[in-house]
Design brief:
- By secondary structure, the chain is an alpha/beta fold.
- Helix content is about 45%, strand content about 10%.
- It contains ten helices and five strands.
- Strands 3-2-1-4-5 form a five-stranded mixed beta sheet, with helices on both faces.
- A hairpin with a 5-residue loop joins strand 2 and strand 3 (about 105-110).
- Helix 5 packs across helix 6 (about 150-160), helix 8 crosses helix 10 and helix 9 (about 205-215) crosses helix 10.
- The longest helix has 25 residues, at about 220-240.
Length: about 250
């Protein structure tokens, strides 16, 4: 059945998104509404739409407004943050992970919920599998320093545990956007969150982290999970502020 061209606000959103995205982003936009790239290109060409006819709304909207937008297509973004016992996959285990679908409640994974935690804590195969299976459901993954840490760490664990690679996906790293666009003293998530008033990001003491990772202390793990959740909440808000500076969405 022939797909009808969007109208009104939906069309304005489509045109604005078309001109803001690179080729990969345009393909994702076409996929969202179920038309081919050529059809969408003809729509744009035939209508004579240009960047000038679309109002720039992002500058007058705050984070809460952006999160509340009801778009004509599904915003299939997820924010992800991993918490691990060390920085390298071959010398550490996955402790917790938080995956937050855009605008929805976060999904929590914690190693102490698995049967191997008490007697074989080094076996993080099941939590790795569950995190990967959740990610597979989504098209675009957002993280902070994720292309340097979270995704390579997860991939290393997936290979170690004999899991199939993630499917073709796209990735947004807010750290990379900050490096290219924001002249601030630090691009760490806590620093950007404080500077942009996105929420408080409290740290976890090293002793508490050690207690959770090596002694299995429940209270310590609870604190790590709280820290994990707060990270993705701030990350999602930072992503909203970063979207106007996103020229293209690269493959993950």
């Amino acid at each position: 059945m022939k797909k009808l061209k969007p109208e009104g606000k939906s069309w304005e959103y489509f045109v604005k998104s078309w001109y803001e995205r690179g080729h990969a982003g345009k393909l994702m936009l076409c996929s969202d509404i179920g038309v081919s790239y050529d059809v969408a290109k003809h729509w744009i060409s035939d209508s004579g739409s240009t960047r000038k006819v679309v109002k720039e709304e992002t500058s007058s909207m705050d984070v809460d407004d952006i999160l509340a937008i009801e778009t004509p297509t599904k915003l299939d973004f997820v924010c992800i943050d991993l918490e691990t016992s060390n920085l390298n996959a071959d010398f550490s285990i996955l402790l917790t992970a938080c995956i937050k679908p855009f605008g929805l409640e976060p999904i929590i994974f914690r190693a102490d919920n698995y049967s191997t935690w008490e007697k074989k804590r080094s076996d993080d195969s099941q939590i790795t599998k569950d995190i990967a299976n959740e990610l597979r459901k989504h098209a675009i993954v957002i993280g902070h320093y994720s292309q340097k840490f979270d995704i390579p760490f997860l991939r290393a664990k997936m290979v170690k545990h004999g899991l199939a690679p993630l499917p073709p996906m796209f990735g947004i790293d807010t750290w990379r956007i900050a490096i290219n666009n924001f002249k601030v003293s630090s691009r760490r998530l806590v620093s950007l969150g404080n500077f942009f008033d996105l929420g408080d990001k409290s740290g976890v003491e090293g002793s508490l982290w050690m207690s959770g990772a090596y002694e299995g202390n429940k209270e310590a793990m609870n604190k790590i999970v709280e820290h994990n959740i707060q990270d993705v909440i701030i990350l999602e808000k930072l992503a909203c502020l970063s979207f106007p500076y996103l020229k293209a969405i690269p493959k993950l």
